[in-house]
């Protein structure tokens, strides 16, 4: 039976994670609203997500480095504060440039939690219980992302996007107070004595490993395709023949619920059939789900979105596991690099696909992002065989 200390840590991080990921993805259903509110194009509107991710990537590197030296809990709490404050200021500006800069700053602040949370869990919780705590933390990521999208879409359609952001800020303050009083101070944190140069060498070590580079690339491709679906879905569903309201579109994000069960389900299947087979199956299911959204039927589009989520979270969780298994040294750095590649995929999926959407519409976009993971998988299989043959010749 888990003790009170375990549950204080687990619930605190789950609540913090829920809000952080709700904040990160809150703008996704609102992209068509920003086009009208700021008189901008679709490509510019997508910057409200991609620039947040750019800030997050920078924050992961800097704040991860600092958390190893200063401590964990301070960055978890500062992450919440830095995520809340921009929500109060964004509704006050008429400048899209300032709005995007506030999202960039918010993205940097968001990184404080993922940069410190898993390390804090591994240090403070008994190894036998750490797996349960980590699973709950990761599930709250998916749950927060889903609720953030659904709630902001619903409130923005019923009232306004400004009220949606103020509501998020107030909710965040409640979470901050709970975390401040519940989250225990670190008991086993030991400040790293490694220099920045040594940390950098740890990162660069993995960039020389061809097998790991292929896995990092897969992280980018998976998230690029997955984010691409959800970024342009609101624009597609607002048009003919669906003409859905923003509120109705926001309900489509409930498909993310499969992400809450997808990761542990994938781990269970991998234990039976093997990681590689289940990961390939997840990638295939992802591509099939994306392709299903080409249907003219709203019902089959919803089914396709559910299949897409199940396939993505299966493939993503097992790809992250593969990184830890393949890295022989500096496993923490390898995981960080995968996280960075994952969020590069988010940024590309929200902005780099805009020309395809603009020139070829939903059909062209979906065909591209449905085929891309399968094509990359084929390339990976081919290159891995070449690497294995090369290693075998060296060993001979």
TrEMBL record:
GO terms of molecular function: transmembrane transporter activity
Any one GO CC term of the record: plasma membrane
Residue ranges crossing the lipid bilayer per the database entry: 47-67, 74-90, 96-120, 132-151, 163-183, 212-233, 253-273, 285-313, 360-383
Main localization, broad class: membrane
Keyword Transmembrane helix: yes
All copies of domain Major facilitator superfamily (MFS) profile, residue ranges: 9-388
One Pfam family from the record: MFS_1
Membrane topology qualifier: Multi-pass membrane protein
Gene3D superfamilies named among the record's database cross-references: MFS general substrate transporter like domains
InterPro entries on file: MFS, MFS_dom, MFS_trans_sf
PROSITE patterns: MFS
UniProt keyword list: Cell membrane, Membrane, Transmembrane, Transmembrane helix, Transport
UniProt keyword Transmembrane present: yes
UniProt xrefs under PANTHER family: BLL2771 PROTEIN, INNER MEMBRANE TRANSPORT PROTEIN YNFM
Family: Belongs to the major facilitator superfamily.
Protein name (record): Inner membrane transport protein YnfM
The species this protein was found in: Virgibacillus massiliensis
Organism taxonomic ancestry: Bacteria, Bacillati, Bacillota, Bacilli, Bacillales
